[in-house]
Design goal:
- By secondary structure, the protein is an alpha+beta fold.
- The protein is 18% helix and 35% strand.
- It has four helices and nine strands.
- It has a six-stranded antiparallel sheet. The chain has a three-stranded antiparallel sheet with strand order 4-6-7, with no helix packed on it.
- It is globular.
Length: 126
C-alpha cells in the first residue's frame, strides 16, 4: 500500500496535496482498496465554497455509494474531468491521475490538523 509523504490525510481516508495556492484532493490508496472497483465519481459542488468536513461529492462502487469529505475549507476550482470517462483512475493511481478535485483553500493552517503518512498508517492498522 502506498503512503506518500507529500500529502496530508484525513480520518475519513481523503488526502490533500498543496501546490502553491491550490490543492489537489482525492481518496487514499487504502480507501480505494477497501471500496473496490470505482464505477462513478460525482462532484456537484464545482464553483462552491465549502467548510472543512463538508461533503463535496460521492464515489460509487458496484455495491455502495460513499460520501467524500473536504479535508480543509475552500472553493472547489476544478473537477478531474478524466474521471468521467475513466473513474477507475482512482483505483489505478489514487495520488496521481486519480485526483478528484482541485481547491483553493480558505485557510491552509487547517492542514495542520490533518495526519501525516506515519499517523495515517497507524490509524488504518489499529
Amino acid at each position: 500500500m502506498n503512503f506518500p509523504t507529500n500529502v496530508k490525510y484525513t480520518n475519513e481516508h481523503e488526502w490533500i496535496r498543496l501546490e502553491g495556492e491550490e490543492a489537489y484532493v482525492g481518496i487514499t490508496d487504502y480507501a480505494q482498496t477497501q471500496l473496490g472497483d470505482i464505477v462513478f465519481v460525482d462532484v456537484p459542488t464545482e464553483g462552491e465554497t465549502l467548510e472543512k468536513g463538508e461533503t463535496f461529492g460521492s464515489i460509487e462502487v458496484v455495491k455502495t455509494v460513499s460520501d467524500l469529505f473536504l479535508p480543509v475549507g475552500g472553493e472547489i476550482l476544478e473537477v478531474n474531468q478524466a474521471l468521467e470517462e475513466n473513474p477507475e483512475l482512482v483505483n489505478k493511481d489514487p495520488y496521481g491521475e486519480g485526483w478528484i478535485i482541485k481547491i483553493k483553500p480558505t485557510d491552509v493552517s487547517e492542514m495542520d490538523d490533518l495526519l501525516d503518512a506515519e499517523a495515517y498508517k497507524k490509524l488504518i492498522n489499529e
